[in-house]
C-alpha cells in the first residue's frame, strides 16, 4: 500500500508540521520506503504469534497509592512561557 | 410521516477514588489552588516517566466486576495523540485495543415495571486532562486567553462505554442513574457531576422504524447534569428528524450542548482531531492481572445494589422492580434499611412512601435525599400516626413534604396544624439577592457556564430560610435573577 502526497500532508497536519512541497515529496518517498520494508515482514506467517506490545517481556511496575508533594512546583511554573498567579496562560484557542 | 427509532450509546468518564494520581504521586484532592498538585510527570516535562497506581487498577477491577465485565489478564496502555492546551504531553495515556475490562451488562428498571439489559462494551483506564478557565468571555468562544491548571492532569479515570442499546432519552437517564448507583455501591467513585467526577458524552442517531442499519451518529458533549443529558438527547433527536424531513443528510460530527439556548451546536474542525493515531505506550509495559488479584478484589467488594435487591425480595417480599428503584440511590437504600429496623408494620409501606412520595419530591425539586431534612425515625413516626389513624394518608402526603423541607416532627406538625411557608415573592427575592451578593465566585462560575451551580443557590436559599421557602418560587426567582 503506497501513500501519496495527500496522505503525507494529512499526517504532517496532524503533527502540526508546516512542510514545503519539496519536503512533502521527500517525506512521501521516505515513508513509502519504510512501508515497503515493513511489507517484507508480511511474507512471514504470524497467525500463531501473539502481538508484541513491548520489547521487554514483563508486566508493568506498580506504585502504592500514596500522595507525595513534588518539592519544586515553582520550577515547573517557570518553564511556562506565560504565568498568571499560579496558572499557565495560553493564547486564545478558537 | 416516517416513524423513527432513536439509538443511543453513552460514554461515561468517572474519576476513581485514589489518593494519588494515575502515573505520579501528586494528590488528587479537589478544589486546591491552581497547579498546587503538579510534578514533572503530570505536566509532561521531558524525560519524566509514568509509574502506574496499583489502587487505580484495583478500583477498575472492582468496577468491572460490578458491571459484570470480563477482567482481562493482560491489558495495554496506548497513546491517544492530539493537541490541546489542557494536555501537556500532547497525548493522553489511555487504553485502546486491550482494555482492562470488557463485555459486561447492567439491568435497568423501566417505568412500566419491566427490565432492560444494556450491554457494556468496555471500561478502560485513562488519565484525565488539565482544566482550562477562559478569559475575556463566558466560554471558549470569544475568549482572549485561557488559564491552565494541571491539578486534574493525570487523575485516574475509568471510561465506561455502553453498547448502542438505549432507545430514548429517558432510558439514557435511567442508565446514567444506574451507573452512578453502581459506582457508589462499589465505592469506586463519588460520581458527582458537580465536581466533574462523572462526565458523560452521548452518541445519538435515528433510523426509520424497521431499518436494520444504524443512521449516521452524532456525538454530543458539554452536558453538565443528568437532566442536561436527557434534554440534550431529546433536542438532538428532534434536530436530526428535522434534517431528514427537509430531505437533507445527518452529518457525522461532534456537537456541543448549549443549555441556555436549548440546542446543540456543531464543533467545527473537531473531525480531524478524531484521527488520534493510537499506538502502544512505550513508557509502560503491559498490565498483568492474575487470578489472585481479582479474587482479592472480589472478596473486598461491598454489598452491591443487586445483592441488596435480592435481600429485599427475600426478607421483605418486595417486588424486583420496587427493590431496584429503592436501591438505585445508595443513600435511599441505606435510609430504607434504617427505617425498616425501626418500623413494626409491613415494610412495604415504607417502600411505597419512599418510591412514590419521597423520590417524586426529590425528582421535582432536583434534590438528593441528603439535601432534605427527612430522617428514618421521622418517617417511621409519621407512618405510626397513619397506622393509629391520627391522620389520613392524604394529610400525611402534605406533612411529608413539610418534614422533607423543615425536619419538623410529624407529631408536632399535626399539633400546630402546619408551618408557615415563605410564599411572599418580595421577601424571598430580597433573600436571594443577598445570597447572590455573598457568593460572587459561584455567581461568576455560574455565568461562565457552570449552570449546575443553580442547585447550590437553591440549597443556600433553603438553608437561609430554614426550609420554609417555597421551592418552586425559589427556582422561579433564581431563573429570573441569574439570567
From TrEMBL, chain A:
Claim: Nucleus is one of the keywords in the record: no
One of the record's GO molecular function terms: transferase activity
Biological process according to GO: glutaminyl-tRNAGln biosynthesis via transamidation; regulation of translational fidelity; translation
Classification via Pfam families: GatC
Presence of the UniProt keyword Transcription in the record: no
Keywords: ATP-binding, Ligase, Nucleotide-binding, Protein biosynthesis
Reaction it catalyzes: L-glutamyl-tRNA(Gln) + L-glutamine + ATP + H2O = L-glutaminyl-tRNA(Gln) + L-glutamate + ADP + phosphate + H(+); L-aspartyl-tRNA(Asn) + L-glutamine + ATP + H2O = L-asparaginyl-tRNA(Asn) + L-glutamate + ADP + phosphate + 2 H(+)
Enzyme Commission code(s) on record: 6.3.5.-
InterPro entries: Asp/Glu-ADT_sf_sub_c, GatC
Top enzyme class: ligase
PANTHER family, alphabetized: GLUTAMYL-TRNA(GLN) AMIDOTRANSFERASE SUBUNIT C, MITOCHONDRIAL
Similarity comment text for this entry: Belongs to the GatC family.
UniProt subunit comment: Heterotrimer of A, B and C subunits.
HAMAP family listed in its UniProt record: GatC
Protein name: Aspartyl/glutamyl-tRNA(Asn/Gln) amidotransferase subunit C
Source species: Candidatus Termititenax persephonae
Lineage of producing organism: Bacteria, Bacillati, Candidatus Margulisiibacteriota, Candidatus Termititenacia, Candidatus Termititenacales
From TrEMBL, chain B:
Molecular function GO labels: asparaginyl-tRNA synthase (glutamine-hydrolyzing) activity; ATP binding; glutaminyl-tRNA synthase (glutamine-hydrolyzing) activity; transferase activity
Catalytic activity: L-glutamyl-tRNA(Gln) + L-glutamine + ATP + H2O = L-glutaminyl-tRNA(Gln) + L-glutamate + ADP + phosphate + H(+); L-aspartyl-tRNA(Asn) + L-glutamine + ATP + H2O = L-asparaginyl-tRNA(Asn) + L-glutamate + ADP + phosphate + 2 H(+)
Keywords attached to this entry: ATP-binding, Ligase, Nucleotide-binding, Protein biosynthesis
Keyword set includes Signal: no
Coiled-coil segments: none
Domain Asn/Gln amidotransferase residue range list: 334-482
Class of the enzyme per the UniProt entry, highest EC level: ligase
Signal sequence range: none
GO BP, one annotated term: translation
EC number per UniProt: 6.3.5.-
A Pfam family it matches: GatB_Yqey
Family: Belongs to the GatB/GatE family. GatB subfamily.
Record function comment: Allows the formation of correctly charged Asn-tRNA(Asn) or Gln-tRNA(Gln) through the transamidation of misacylated Asp-tRNA(Asn) or Glu-tRNA(Gln) in organisms which lack either or both of asparaginyl-tRNA or glutaminyl-tRNA synthetases. The reaction takes place in the presence of glutamine and ATP through an activated phospho-Asp-tRNA(Asn) or phospho-Glu-tRNA(Gln).
The protein's assembly and partners: Heterotrimer of A, B and C subunits.
Full protein name: Aspartyl/glutamyl-tRNA(Asn/Gln) amidotransferase subunit B
Species whose genome carries this gene: Candidatus Termititenax persephonae
Name of the gene this protein is made from: gatB
Amino acid at each position: 500500500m503506497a501513500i501519496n502526497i495527500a496522505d503525507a500532508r494529512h499526517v504532517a497536519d496532524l503533527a502540526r508540521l508546516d512542510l514545503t512541497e519539496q519536503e512533502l515529496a521527500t517525506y512521501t518517498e521516505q515513508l513509502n520506503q519504510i512501508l515497503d520494508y515493513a511489507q517484507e515482514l508480511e511474507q512471514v506467517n504470524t497467525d500463531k504469534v501473539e502481538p508484541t506490545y513491548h520489547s521487554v517481556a514483563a508486566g508493568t511496575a506498580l506504585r502504592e497509592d500514596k500522595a507525595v508533594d513534588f518539592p519544586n512546583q515553582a520550577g515547573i511554573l517557570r518553564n511556562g512561557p506565560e504565568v498568571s498567579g499560579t496558572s499557565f496562560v495560553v493564547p486564545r484557542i478558537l | 410521516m416516517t416513524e423513527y427509532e432513536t439509538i443511543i450509546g453513552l460514554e461515561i468518564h468517572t474519576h476513581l477514588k485514589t489518593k494519588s494520581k494515575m502515573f505520579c504521586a501528586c494528590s488528587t484532592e479537589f478544589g486546591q489552588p491552581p497547579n498546587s498538585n503538579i510534578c514533572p510527570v503530570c505536566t509532561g516535562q521531558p524525560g519524566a516517566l509514568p509509574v502506574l497506581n496499583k489502587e487505580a487498577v484495583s478500583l477498575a477491577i472492582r468496577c468491572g466486576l460490578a458491571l459484570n465485565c470480563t477482567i482481562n489478564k493482560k491489558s495495554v496502555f496506548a497513546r491517544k495523540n492530539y493537541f490541546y492546551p489542557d494536555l501537556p504531553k500532547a497525548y493522553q495515556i489511555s487504553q485502546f485495543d486491550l482494555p482492562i475490562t470488557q463485555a459486561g451488562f447492567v439491568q435497568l428498571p423501566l417505568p412500566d415495571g419491566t427490565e432492560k439489559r444494556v450491554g457494556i462494551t468496555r471500561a478502560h483506564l485513562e488519565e484525565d486532562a488539565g482544566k482550562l478557565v477562559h478569559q475575556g468571555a463566558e466560554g471558549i468562544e470569544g475568549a482572549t486567553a485561557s488559564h491552565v491548571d494541571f491539578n486534574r492532569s493525570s487523575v485516574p479515570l475509568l471510561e465506561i462505554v455502553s453498547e448502542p442499546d438505549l432507545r430514548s432519552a429517558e432510558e439514557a437517564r435511567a442508565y446514567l442513574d444506574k451507573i452512578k448507583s453502581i459506582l457508589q455501591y462499589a465505592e469506586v467513585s463519588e460520581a458527582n457531576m458537580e465536581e466533574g467526577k462523572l462526565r458523560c458524552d452521548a452518541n445519538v442517531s435515528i433510523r426509520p422504524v424497521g431499518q436494520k442499519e444504524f443512521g449516521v451518529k452524532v456525538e454530543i458533549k458539554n452536558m453538565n447534569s443528568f437532566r442536561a443529558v436527557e434534554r440534550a438527547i431529546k433536542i438532538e433527536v428532534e434536530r436530526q428528524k428535522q434534517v431528514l424531513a427537509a430531505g437533507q443528510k445527518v452529518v457525522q460530527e461532534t456537537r456541543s450542548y448549549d443549555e441556555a439556548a436549548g440546542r446543540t451546536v456543531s464543533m467545527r474542525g473537531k473531525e480531524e482531531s478524531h484521527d488520534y493515531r493510537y499506538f502502544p505506550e512505550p513508557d509502560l509495559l503491559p498490565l498483568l492481572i492474575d487470578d489472585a488479584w481479582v479474587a482479592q478484589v472480589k472478596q473486598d467488594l461491598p454489598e452491591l445494589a443487586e445483592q441488596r435487591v435480592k435481600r429485599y425480595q427475600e426478607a421483605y417480599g418486595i417486588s424486583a422492580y420496587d427493590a431496584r428503584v429503592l436501591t438505585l440511590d445508595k443513600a435511599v437504600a441505606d435510609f430504607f434499611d434504617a427505617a425498616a429496623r425501626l418500623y413494626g408494620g409491613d415494610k412495604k409501606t415504607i417502600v411505597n412512601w419512599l418510591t412514590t412520595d419521597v423520590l417524586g419530591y426529590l425528582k421535582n425539586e432536583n434534590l438528593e435525599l441528603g439535601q432534605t431534612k427527612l430522617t428514618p425515625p421521622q418517617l417511621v413516626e409519621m407512618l405510626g400516626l397513619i397506622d393509629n389513624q391520627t391522620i389520613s394518608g392524604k394529610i400525611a402526603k402534605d406533612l411529608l413534604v413539610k418534614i422533607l423541607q423543615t425536619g419538623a416532627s410529624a407529631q408536632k406538625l399535626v399539633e400546630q396544624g402546619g408551618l408557615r411557608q415563605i410564599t411572599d415573592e418580595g421577601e424571598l427575592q430580597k433573600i436571594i439577592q443577598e445570597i447572590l451578593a455573598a457568593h460572587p465566585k459561584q455567581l461568576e462560575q455560574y455565568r461562565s457556564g457552570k449552570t449546575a451551580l443553580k442547585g447550590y443557590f437553591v440549597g443556600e436559599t433553603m438553608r437561609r430560610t430554614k426550609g420554609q421557602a417555597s421551592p418552586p418560587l425559589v427556582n422561579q426567582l433564581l431563573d429570573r435573577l441569574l439570567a
